[in-house]
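Moderator note: this is an archived Q&A kept for reference. The question asked for a predicted structure of one protein chain; the sequence and the answer are reproduced below.
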Amino acid sequence: MRTSLYIWIILIGVSAFLSSCKSDATKKSVEEVKTIKPAAKIPRVDADTAYYFIKKQLEFGVRVPGTNGHAMAKDWIANTMKSFGASVEIQEFKATFLTKKDIPSYNIIASINPNHKERVILFAHWDSRLIAEKDKDQSKKELPIMGAIDGASGVAALLEIARQITMQPIDLGVDFVFFDAEDQGSTDEDSWCLGSQHWAKNYRPNGPTPKFGILLDLIGAKDATYFKEGISAMYAKNIQDKVWDIAQKMGKANLFQNSEIGGITDDHYYVNTIAKIPTIDIIQTYPSGMFGTYHHTHDDNIDAVDKENLAAVTQVVLAVLYKNSDGTF
């Protein structure tokens, strides 16, 4: 009888143990399911709207710091971002460049979902160049250019991304920085990218530091392709590889060439080295290091723009953001 009782007690204990294990396993399974986010729906970029954002900037005229067109463009970019629900801050600084001294200049800093713990940051410069030193027409070399590709295109992409996020909310904090006084340099490398240098030296995040950044510069030109730029590879190779992989999976391998080129001193250099945010540059250049024939000439006008190319680059960056939001990047 005692033997039977012991057996019965043992059986009850084993049963309870197995039941407990099963319950714990079920609980863990449920918890794991809860942490998996559903795949984010990636909005489709509107090529016409992105193209309109370039045209609108050109309507203000040249956007060289200190000009009327510059002042009007600043207000328009800031107000447009506000209309998309972003918080906006204007960071003023003085820029000395070429023949100009202590010119009021402005970085435009905006955030969507500013309290979100996970963040990505996007960059572009919004000024246009004071001179056209590469122009074939000698009489035009000292005249300011419109900067449809070199300036307005990156701004247009960021504005379209913000607009799309407004219509398709994202589970991610997205910061936008529009740098001023980027395109006013000369032979000294540090005479370029004055806005990003100022921003990086004064960068004090209000919350979590962004996981990484993407700079858009010289995008959307006719026949433009994009190689893996060297400084990006040095400081953020894993990000660069993932972005190019996404682009190729999206059928854009003809634009995002899977080969490396040399480093380019651009805004991302100072973001990487001073602000310490791993950042890549998506920029049109050739393996030789040469830019497009429009670069720093008066051919950098609306005729240089291919709105489908512009939309394709913008779409890849938008996909990167939404894949970050659901954990698949």
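Archived answer notes: The helical segments are 2-35, 47-59, 68-83, 148-167, 194-201, 230-249, 267-275, 307-325.
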